[in-house]
Amino acid sequence: MKKLLFSLISFVLLFSLLPPNAMTKAETKISDQESFLDAIKKSDSFKEYKKYLIEKEPTILNPVTDENNNHIGYIAQFEIDFEKDFKAEKGSINF
C-alpha cells in the first residue's frame, strides 16, 4: 500500500512541476502546402469522401502557428455535398 501511495504522489508531483509544453512537440514533418495536400489526398478519409467534393481544391488552406507564432502545420477545409447520395440512399448517411 505504501508503494502505491508513494508512486501516486510521485506521479502527481512530476506532472504538476513540469510545464505543459515540456511534453509537446512543435515540429511537423510536412513543411509546405503541397506536401500537406498530398498527404490529405492519400488518406483513406479523403478517398472515402472524394465523390462528395464540390471542388477538388480546398476552400480554405491556412498555416497554423503556436502561441509563439512558430509555424506548426496547416489546416484545410473542403466543401462537400451529401445531397446527391442522400437522395439515392433514401435519407441514410453513414459516417
Folded structure, characterized:
The chain is an alpha+beta fold and 95 residues long. The protein has one domain. It has helices at residues 2-17, 33-42, 44-49, 83-88, and strands spanning 60-65, 71-77. Strands 1-2 form a two-stranded antiparallel ribbon. The radius of gyration is 22 Å and the shape is elongated. It starts with a helix and ends in a 7-residue tail after the last helix. Residues 1-22 form the signal peptide.
SSE blueprint:
Elements: H1 2-17, H2 33-42, H3 44-49, E1 60-65, E2 71-77, H4 83-88
Shape: elongated
What is the strand tally? 2
The description of the largest β-sheet is: 2 strands, antiparallel
How many angstroms separate the termini? Answer: 47 Å
Order of helical and strand elements? HHHEEH
Helix percentage range: 40-55%
Which regions are unreliable across 5 or more consecutive residues at pLDDT < 50?
none
The proportion of residues in beta strands is: 5-15%
Lateral strand order in the biggest sheet = 1-2
Number of helical stretches of at least 4 residues: 4
The count of domains is: 1
Rg, rounded, reads 22 Å
Task: Provide a short characterization of the protein structure.
The protein is α+β, with helices and mostly antiparallel strands. It is built from four helices and two strands; from the N terminus they run H-H-H-E-E-H.
What key phrases describe this protein's structure?
alpha+beta; 4 helices; 40% helix; 95 residues; two-stranded antiparallel ribbon
